[in-house]
Amino acid sequence: MDKELEALSIKIGNLLKSKGLTLATAESCTGGWAAKVITDIPGSSHWFDRGFVTYTNIAKQEMLAVNENTLAEFGAVSEQTVQEMAEGVIQHSHADIALAISGIAGPHGDTPQKPLGMVCLAWSGKQFATFSTTEHYTGDREQVRYQAVVAALEGIQKCLETKI
């Protein structure tokens, strides 16, 4: 495993364990990569509940209760959608804290309003209000996805260190 992702996953695991909390994920463009690196850590079953890979709009609606109107108005790659994804994770799991990722990793699917490398991330929790951000990454598909996973995990770390 990549050393940066491994170190972040271990740090998050230790923080979750020390606080008696669990994490779950909702991923679109990263296809479960965040859940994979988290579960690469031995003992992660003590603090990782589940991961949702909701690649299509219908999956986002069925599995996470993302509102059809949100998708129609703002699109799958929007802060509004990832906020609903993260909140859906909390509603449809036993997790205390959640992350959500949706983006345009390429090489196709971009528009002038939503260019390649645009990724929206959100974090939600039982003990803090949902928040989100939009990032613009450079590189190929793999590099965009990698940067999105790092940012998502760093966001969880920040939540655990400052919000809980």
Sequence-ordered SSE layout with sheet pairings:
Blueprint lengths: L2 H17 L3 E5 L5 H7 L8 E6 L3 H8 L3 H7 L4 H13 L5 E7 L14 E8 L2 E9 L4 H22 L2
Parallel strand pairs: 1-2, 1-3
Antiparallel strand pairs: 3-4, 4-5
Note down, in words, how this protein is organized.
- This protein has about 160 residues and is of the alpha/beta class.
- The protein has a single domain (about 5-160), classed as Alpha-Beta Complex (Maf protein), CATH 3.90.950.
- It contains six helices and five strands; from the N terminus they run H-E-H-E-H-H-H-E-E-E-H.
- The protein has helices spanning about 5-20, 35-40, 55-65, 70-75, 80-90, 140-160, and strands at about 25, 50-55, 95-105, 120-125, 130-135.
- It has a five-stranded mixed beta sheet, sandwiched between helices.
- The longest helix is centred in the last third of the chain and has 22 residues, at about 140-160.
- The relative contact order is 0.18.
Q: What separation lies between the terminal Cα atoms?
A: 28 Å
CATH architecture title: Alpha-Beta Complex
Mean pLDDT: 97
Strand content: 15-25%
Number of helices: 6
What's the Cα radius of gyration? 15 Å
What are the secondary-structure elements, in order, as H or E?
HEHEHHHEEEH
The total strand number stands at 5
Please give a handful of descriptors for the protein shown:
alpha/beta; Maf protein; 164 residues; 21% strand
Short recap of the structure:
It is built from six helices and five strands, in the order H-E-H-E-H-H-H-E-E-E-H. The chain is an alpha/beta fold and 164 residues long.
